[in-house]
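Data availability (excerpt). The following record was deposited with the supplementary files.
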Amino acid sequence: MTRSSDLEQIETRVVALVRDFSSIHDDETVADSCRPIEQAVASQSVTSSEGGKRLRALLTLDSFRAFASDDVRERDADAMLDLACAIEVFQTGALVHDDIIDDSDLRRGKPSAHRALAARTRSNDIGHGLGIMLGDMLATASVDIANRAATRMRHGSHVVSAFLNMHREVEIGQVLDLAVELNPLDDPESLAQASLNVFRWKTASYTTIAPLEFGMLCAGMDPSKARSLALRIGLPLGLAFQLADDLLDVVGSSRNTGKPVGGDIREGKRTVLLADAIAAADADAKRELIGIWESDERSESQVARAIELFGQTGAIERSHGRITDLWNESNAAIGQLDLPENGKQTLAEACARFVPIVAER
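Predicted structure:
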């Protein structure tokens, strides 16, 4: 099956699954006065679920195809599609909550869910509350979808536990992501290590580790071996992916990312890129960077200046180096797998999609 065919099936199935879960069914009752808002939330759940690169779902499918026998691949194809979609639904819920925490206006080039619901209800408070509940609804939907998919697979008994562990790790990661904002800026090495640790919990856990693990488990691999291999390949890959995403925030474009360039700087987020810049800066530039981040808010000129300093200090180049090293570690782990060459190639191509920035250099 081709990547474009996979993407088409994933997109169609995600929308169908989310619409079914979030809509009121014929045998359920909602007061007429409340129905328009319920319908607005259900509609927004679909809107928020549309689009995206679907990297996590694609990796889930390709991991399964790389490790499963021909008969298992054929028998469990439909259930695997739903499991892959469950990760995408989970991600959408996490992004809805992320946008509330970060007070973001845009997501994938469209108004973030809580902003859209605030406009629909003409109330920021209600829009904010509805956004929280929408994120919760999508998270619950993801578990329901994963559970139903797992019960249809002979080797799916461990999938639900792994899926719930993924939830737990991302939730811990969100706590750590907020905690790292309290890290002092005068200790860049500590800040870089704390930020990378957040990447492991908040991003790698569900972006690369879990999709690999699900594919292996559903192919019939022993759970402890599946977890070990998924970490060996997925952890460095997930770190590289998040570093590349942070880098695109300053060297990309709104057209490509769907978000304003310099968004992390405007929010004053403490990132590995910032830590590397502070570590390499001279005394004047270090004071300037810390002053920008310690301001109550950052102007467009300060955003531009921070990006300039990222380049002048070599932080951008350092980030490229980190990403390349991590990708090489992940790719080497794939090469060591006990798989036929076509299986290794399938997996390597799926993983490479997470770090196109390496191939572009």
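Summary of structural features: The CA atoms of residues 42 and 64 lie 31 Å apart.
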